[in-house]
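Researcher: I'd like a structural prediction for the single chain below. Treat it as a standalone chain; there are no partners to consider.
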Amino acid sequence: MGKAATVTPVRDRTWLRRRLHWGWGALVRRQELIVFLLLLLMSAALGLGTETFFTGTNLLNIAIYVSWFAIAAFGVGIAIIVGGIDLSVAAVMALAGLVCASTLQQGLPLPVAILLGLLSGTLAGLLNGALVSKFHLPPFIVTLGTMGVARGITLGLTNGAPVRDLPEAFRLLGQGALVVGPVSLPLPLLWMLLLATLVSLMLHQTVLGRYIYVVGTDERALLVVGVPTGRVKLLAYILSGALAAFGGMIMTAKLGVASPVAASGYELDIIAAAVIGGASLFGGEGTVTGIILGALLMQITRNGLVLLGLPTFWQWLTIGAMILLVILLDFGRRRRV
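Model: Treating it as a single chain, here is the predicted structure.
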């Protein structure tokens, strides 16, 4: 009798968790499909409404700009999946780009400068993760604070002056292309696809990836079996900082200048890309494919509004409305579950 009383609730919880997992997975895939269809409809509308949307130059620019947004959004998506958020992502992008550019100007080799840029983002993620996982502070407040710290350090490093005349070898990381026959693939796009593959494999083919999803849905279940969920959250924020740093360096290489105010306001676009692509702000959901689609939708929306000649405030209004709509839909389906 005692044995049955012990086993049955565990079996019921396991069945319920599997049922919810597959249900949420279907909803995520459905959201990806919706975003994909929106991309097709918006592209068709912009193709009919403008003369320049489907030009090679415009599509190439969209693909390049999407790359560093998506790379940073991969990290933010991981933080969201574990039930957190990372508002410091844009400031970390600027910090990493400036650290890399400044060390290059001081004569350090390119690999060392890149490692230092990645280290700056990793340390920012480590700080975020430690404050969230060890001290149980709210991720929103923590990353809001580190956003200010990172932006202040960035401005202080050069007294607000941009770093110019970057070495050609570094600029090639963002401006170069891989030529395969008649096709020229921009390097930023290739970096994005490479990292998309690695992050997707980590999330879906490793124990850490499974823990990341479960922490966002049922952290208590992991604690019961002895999994240190604090370490999982710490690693999630470290990955977020490192990916933001990589995206920031690619952005800096493409622009050819490291500005202390670079990426200002990008937080909204990056978080929106992850959320619109299916990463639930309640945790436990999100895919790399969805994030890429979300980033594409964000950039095509901005690009289309510019091509249509609409004022800048329409960009903020449209993107803000899209985020609110997705959050409301997410909240509604959570209540139904």
